[in-house]
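FORM 12-B: Structure-to-Sequence Request
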């Protein structure tokens, strides 16, 4: 047991920087290096066996950026707003692409692990991956296609408003108007 503790001592030293881990250790009475090691092992098992990885990658890709976007909106600086707006553009583009090729992605081993790594790379302020993708590829594509995208959105809006004006669209509501509740 001493050999294990000796191996975990450098990790404990690094984890001493995080007071939240100390609070967790005090609450559960388990050493923080064991907690972090167990969490890492659990994460590795999830990655290898793929159990719940689709949900985990979706949560990571959405929850943390949503919270950081909220914080960015509440600050007066503009830089963090731009970072998170760019992230959401990349996230939306990625999600749309993913929905078209989902059947093929099922057959790629460790796809969700790669997706999780991609989303982390895209969102983290240290890597600024979303900004890189936006500046390198997506901005030019969107600028070239802006008028076509606007035209398609206007056409969709016009078609949707036409559906509510179509004959028979209000028939169900009209039939229910004359009936009394039993």
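FORM 12-B RESPONSE
SEQUENCE OUT:
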């Amino acid at each position: 047991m001493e050999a294990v503790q000796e191996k975990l001592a450098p990790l404990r030293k690094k984890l001493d920087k995080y007071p939240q881990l100390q609070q967790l250790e005090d609450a559960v009475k388990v050493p923080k290096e064991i907690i972090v090691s167990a969490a890492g092992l659990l994460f590795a098992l999830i990655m290898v066996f793929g159990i719940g990885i689709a949900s985990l990658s979706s949560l990571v890709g959405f929850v943390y950026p949503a919270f950081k976007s909220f914080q960015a909106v509440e600050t007066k600086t503009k830089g963090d707003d731009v970072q998170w707006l760019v992230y959401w553009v990349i996230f939306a583009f990625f999600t749309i692409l993913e929905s078209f090729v989902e059947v093929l992605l099922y057959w790629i081993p460790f796809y969700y692990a790669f997706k999780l790594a991609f989303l982390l790379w895209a969102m983290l302020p240290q890597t600024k991956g979303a900004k890189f993708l936006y500046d390198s590829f997506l901005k030019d594509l969107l600028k070239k296609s802006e008028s076509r995208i606007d035209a398609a959105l206007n056409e969709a809006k016009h078609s949707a408003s036409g559906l509510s004006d179509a004959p028979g669209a209000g028939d169900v509501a009209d039939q229910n108007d004359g009936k009394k509740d039993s």
